[in-house]
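Summarise what follows for lecture notes:
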Amino acid sequence: MLARQAVGRAAVAALANRYTGYRRLTAISQGGLPGPEASAGKLAGTAAAKLVADAGVRLLGDDAVFAAAPGDGSGEDGAGRWQRNQAWLPGIAIAGGTDEVLRNIIGERVLGLPPEPREDKHRPFNASGSTR
């Protein structure tokens, strides 16, 4: 993929995520509750953030180690924020639910797909036989 394609994909994903977020905020401001679409928003947000970080590192190459990230405000070099952003994104993708859990929520609550079969669904956790 060319660098300009990476930047284009990142820009489109970031804008789509922004406007989808506006829709969620509008629903909440009108008294609605966040629903399963918040799961889709988190999936889209982490995907957009990964695309932005990847595009930044791709454009900067080895200089990504020394370049400040956008919105940093410091104007200082040597911060390595592009690489740090790319490094912590997998952790952000896990925080608040892994992508697989969020996809299950979307599938079951939005698309109406049947839930995954679980034998332990009606058993309390302490009776599940798991050890610490």
About this structure: The chain has a mean pLDDT of 80. The CA atoms of residues 17 and 49 lie 10 Å apart. The chain is about 60% helix and 0% strand.
